[in-house]
Amino acid sequence: MKKILIFSTLTYLFLTINSSAATQSSNAISLKNEKILKIGVLLPLTGKFQDIGESFLKAIQLALQDIENKNIKIFLKDSGGNALGAYQASKEFQDKGIKIVIGPIFYESLERLSEINDITFISFTNKTEKIPENTIAFGINIISQIDVLKKYFIERDFSKTILLSPKNDFVQQAKIIKDKQLKLHNFFLYDMSPKKITSEIEKLTKYQERKNKLKKKVNILKESDLYKDKQELKILEQKHTLGKVNFDSVVIVDFGERLKSVLTSFMFADVSSSEVNFFTLNQWFDESFFNESALQNLYFPSIDLKNYKKFNKKYSKTFNKSPNKVSILAYDALGLIYYCWASNNFQFKKEQLFNTKGFRGLHGQFTIANNRSNQKLKIYKVYEKKFIKVY
After folding, report:
1. What is the pTM of this model?
2. Strand 299-302 to 364-369 pairing
3. Conformational region of residue 68, where left means phi above 0, alpha means psi within -120 to 50, and beta covers everything else
4. 311 in the same domain as 258
């Protein structure tokens, strides 16, 4: 019964797309052997990022509980949240003969890891540029997000897309979007000051021109005694502008309060989600969006929401606190390593990480190539205080 329970948990949480390999894994798990899987864990456990590191560590502990294999040995080190701390801890991993490490979390900590040639690091950065050859960027990266948006735009026949990005902040991410050929109609950089955003959006949408057009039309209709003109006048008097904008979709590369400011500015410029489709990047299901009328019908790519909720519920029940929003990836990182080890006669080979058939974690399906995780994301929208999957 114990063996069946373990395999059931394994296949549910860490199911590979290769079903035949999963069957081999179940047979291997039933064998009694003393082979040990040594995994380094490199997280910020002191300093200003301590809370984040502890949340990732708890996610790894949850994965260990679900796997229930005493032959997994975790070696924990504090990165301090910086490059030097990550390098020094990795040298200690190297001395212990550890070949695979979960962490570090931040891109800045990767700076010297290329010097540790015989260790593979699964980092949680979502940046994909200049990643060390021995490191996998396991975060929800911009390339995976644009891949799913591109497919969605093609199916919906969006042909006039405007890309918006704040100046000097996410310009690099915006450049990647351009390079991925998302059929952009225009690319616009806006000022990061909330006070200036509204005026810039007004210029982009030709708000004043559309407002003047309405005013002229209303004045003409007021001079008419025709019934149809009077009826049209009643309709136009309920409007703020007249005429449509010259784009059908907007992708905003921003987050938090500034994203809300941009979307509110579109609403003030009389451009609604009923005539233009608004998209942003992965927002990790930020429920503060529910209370913003300007954010209704906002679309974004993200991970599997159903499993994300299950993970959060289990984490909260186990530790009596909410997890860091990204820590589900730490859970999946340990599951990935364990699956590769268990399905290879309890021997870990880094080459298994690059299986082109891919894997399935709690956050969704993914393959690993070119030093990054390529996720098969879904698209959700904010609607009536819910996140609705649309693709």
Report:
1. 0.84
2. unpaired
3. left
4. no
Looking at the 3D structure of the chain, how many domains does it have?
2
- For residues 161 and 281, membership in a common domain is answered with yes
Q: Are 361 and 353 in contact (CB under 8 A)?
A: no
Residue 126 dihedral angles phi and psi, to the nearest 5°: -100, 5
- Please give the full DSSP string across 307-357, using - where no structure is assigned: HHHHHHHHHHHHHSSPPPTTTHHHHHHHHHHHHHHHTTTS---GGGGG-TT
- Residue 72 sits in a domain whose CATH number is 3.40.50.2300
Residue pair 59/331 in contact by the 8 Å Cβ criterion? yes
Residue whose tokens read 């405007």: 162
Which bin fits 265, alpha (ψ -120 to 50), beta or left (φ > 0)? alpha
Please report, as a single letter, which amino acid is at residue 375: Q
d(CA 276, CA 268): 14
Q: Residue 33: which pLDDT band, with cuts at 50, 70 and 90?
A: very low
Query: How far apart are the two ends of the chain, measured CA to CA in Å?
Result: 39
The CA distance from 119 to 341, in Å, is 15
Indicate if 309 and 273 belong to the same structural domain: no
Taking residue 223's Cβ as centre, other Cβ atoms within 10 Å add up to 7
Residue range 130-171, pLDDT digits in tens: 999 999 999 999 999 999 999 999 999 998 899 898 887 666
Specify the pLDDT at position 167.
83
Same domain (yes/no): 106, 229: no
How far apart, in whole angstroms, are the C-alpha atoms of residue 388 and residue 391?
9
Q: Measure the CA–CA gap between 138 and 336, rounded to whole angstroms.
A: 11
Look up the domain containing 229 and give its range.
143-303+380-389
Whether 148 and 216 map to the same domain: the answer is yes
| Contact assessment for residue 273 and residue 297, using Cβ atoms and an 8 Å cutoff | yes
Say yes or no: 359 and 220 in one domain.
Answer: no
d(CA 314, CA 350): 30
The single-letter code of the amino acid at 300 is F
Judgement on whether residues 128 and 207 belong to the same structural domain of the protein: no
Pair 16, 357: CB distance under 8 Å: yes
Does residue 82 sit in the same domain as residue 149? no
**Could you tell me the two tokens for 239?**
């409007």
> How many angstroms separate the CA atoms of 28 and 37, rounded?
14
| Location of structure tokens 């380094």 | 40
